[in-house]
């Protein structure tokens, strides 16, 4: 075939037409300029033209079209060079008319084809257009697959950089900021997002939606979100006020745990640790999904529940049967919490609860009966046990 021997020149011409058209339409980005300067565009044009002409010469059906290994590799190269998919597809589309023109000119140059020139041109033009449609579909699939793989690789690198920074208090904050793409100086509030569920759970979309809602609610100046594992996303919000980020409303399908506002690199680490502690308490208590657990509300439990079984033993030792998970014990615990908050004053407690002071006296005596001892002694231990009783759920 006449054009087969002229492939390098044809590829150069097609690349020139594509370059001019993209420049004219202001689509010649720095990434595309690299594609041109490094010869990737010329190689892609030559690979496509060679494949089309080869298929045409052998009368291969369009449904059998398969991009060559070289074409797939060149498509992946464009992903790595940062060329958007729509620019890649537009470049191929721009190259179709001049390719058809060259096909028609080559047909005229072949004496045997002149008697049926219109048919030859029509067959070639139709085939080239058909190949373009098939190629767009196949190369788009390759581009998206490579783009997703590259994004996963970048995420893994980012996750590892964050883990290293969290684990190393002496790590340089400036260099870590560059690696993870988030400024570690300033203020940070950490949020941990966790999905509950069994095997086969797909969490990507729900976590991404949760991050968007959290950022929108908080009004954060910037944020960092990374997938820590298949069920967990770690998030940091920069420049947020210490007002629980206005995210106290649950988000469907996920649990949220929120640390305190922290300053600088150490605040980045500390707030994250607090969010993890808050999540641990939520999981210990079996809070229903969706839930939001603020570290400020569970910090005592988080401190005491490093060893959960010892914490539960402490609650039982202090409260006895008053620690039971039934309505009677819960009611008496609520009375005691109000009683200690009112400095053990019966009348003040009664006013707070909206009952008669003798009712408070009776309830305190019943609580002591369940506890098996007087509760006016060791009040600090009793108050702590009352605080932990519902959180730790002995």
Structural Rg: 34 Å
The proportion of residues in beta strands is 5-15%
Instruction: Identify the CATH class of the largest domain.
Output: Mainly Alpha
CATH architecture of the largest domain: Orthogonal Bundle
CATH topology of the largest domain: Globin-like
Mean pLDDT: 84
Shape: elongated
Number of strands: 5
Strand order of the largest sheet: 2-3-1-4-5
| Helicity, as a percent range | 55-70%
Distance between the termini: 84 Å
Describe the sheet with the most strands: 5 strands, mixed
Structural class: alpha+beta
Order of helices and strands: HHHHHHHEHEEEHEHHHHHH
Q: Any low-confidence stretches, pLDDT <50, length ≥5? A: 198-202
Domains, number? 3
Describe the structure.
This protein is of the alpha+beta class and 394 residues long. It folds into three domains: 2-151, Globin-like, CATH 1.10.490; 184-303, 2-Layer Sandwich (Alpha-Beta Plaits), CATH 3.30.70; 307-392, Arc Repressor Mutant, subunit A. The chain is built from 15 helices and five strands. The protein has helices at 7-24, 30-37, 40-58, 69-81, 85-108, 117-167, 173-180, 204-218, 264-285, 295-304, 308-319, 327-341, 346-353, 357-371, 379-392, and strands spanning 187-195, 222-229, 232-238, 254-263, 292-294. Strands 2-3-1-4-5 form a five-stranded mixed beta sheet. Strand 2 and strand 3 form a beta hairpin. The longest helix has 51 residues, at 117-167. The radius of gyration is 34 Å and the shape is elongated. The model is unreliable at 198-202 (pLDDT under 50).
């Amino acid at each position: 075939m006449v054009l087969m021997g002229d492939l390098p020149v044809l590829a150069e011409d097609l690349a020139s037409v594509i370059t001019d058209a993209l420049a004219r339409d202001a689509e010649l980005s720095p990434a595309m300029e690299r594609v041109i300067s490094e010869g990737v565009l010329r190689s892609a044009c030559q690979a496509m033209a060679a494949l089309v002409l080869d298929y045409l010469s052998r009368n291969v059906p369009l449904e059998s079209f398969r991009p060559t290994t070289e074409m797939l590799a060149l498509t992946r190269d464009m992903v790595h060079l940062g060329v958007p998919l729509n620019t890649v597809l537009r470049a191929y589309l721009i190259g179709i008319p001049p390719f058809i023109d060259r096909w028609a000119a080559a047909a005229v140059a072949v004496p045997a084809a002149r008697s049926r020139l219109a048919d030859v041109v029509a067959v070639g033009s139709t085939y080239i257009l058909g190949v373009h449609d098939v190629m767009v579909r196949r190369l788009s699939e390759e581009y998206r697959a490579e783009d997703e793989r590259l994004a996963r690789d970048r995420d893994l690198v980012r996750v590892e950089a964050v883990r290293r920074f969290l684990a190393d208090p002496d790590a340089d904050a400036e260099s870590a900021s560059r690696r993870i793409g988030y400024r570690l100086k300033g203020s940070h509030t950490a949020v941990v997002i966790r999905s509950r569920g069994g095997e086969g759970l797909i969490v990507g979309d729900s976590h991404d939606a949760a991050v968007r809602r959290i950022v929108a609610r908080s009004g954060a100046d910037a944020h960092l979100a990374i997938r820590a594992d298949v069920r967990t996303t770690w998030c940091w919000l920069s420049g947020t006020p210490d007002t629980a980020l206005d995210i106290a409303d649950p988000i469907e399908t996920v649990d949220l745990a929120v640390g305190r506002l922290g300053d600088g690199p150490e605040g980045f680490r500390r707030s994250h640790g607090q969010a993890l502690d808050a999540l641990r308490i939520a999981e210990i208590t079996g809070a229903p999904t969706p839930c939001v657990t603020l570290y400020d509300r569970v910090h005592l439990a988080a401190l005491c529940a490093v060893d959960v079984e010892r914490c539960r033993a402490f609650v039982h030792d202090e409260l006895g049967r008053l620690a039971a998970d039934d309505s009677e014990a819960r009611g008496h615990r609520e009375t005691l919490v109000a009683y200690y908050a009112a400095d053990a004053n019966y009348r003040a407690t009664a006013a707070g609860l909206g009952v008669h002071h003798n009712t408070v006296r009776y309830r305190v005596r019943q609580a002591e009966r369940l506890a098996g001892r007087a509760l006016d002694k060791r009040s600090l231990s009793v108050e702590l046990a009352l605080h932990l009783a519902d959180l730790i759920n002995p």
